[in-house]
Amino acid sequence: MECLLRKMMESQGVDESLKASDQMAWVQKVNALRTMAEEVVLREIVYQ
Fold first, then answer.
1. What angle do helix axes 2-12 and 23-41 make, rounded to 10 degrees?
2. Is 14 exposed, middle or buried (CB count within 10 Å of its CB: 0-12, 13-18, 19+)?
């Protein structure tokens, strides 16, 4: 899941510069991406 989250963050442009300039936006995006990554892992590993 961590690897998937890292790739999703890179593709969405969620990086340290965003964290430095707008922490709330960074937190919102990371939380949304973490939720999406969890859903992918559950769907592909747990439910199949």
1. 130
2. buried
3-state secondary structure of 37: helix
Per-residue pLDDT of the chain (48 residues; tens, 9 = 90+): 999 999 999 999 999 999 999 999 999 999 999 999 999 999 998 888
Closest to 4 measured CA to CA, from 34, 42, 30, 48: 34
CA–CA distance, 44 with 48 (Å, rounded to integer): 6
Give the Cα separation of 20 and 42 in Å (integer): 32
Q: What are phi and psi of 38, to 5 degrees?
A: -60, -40
The tokens for 1 are 């899941």
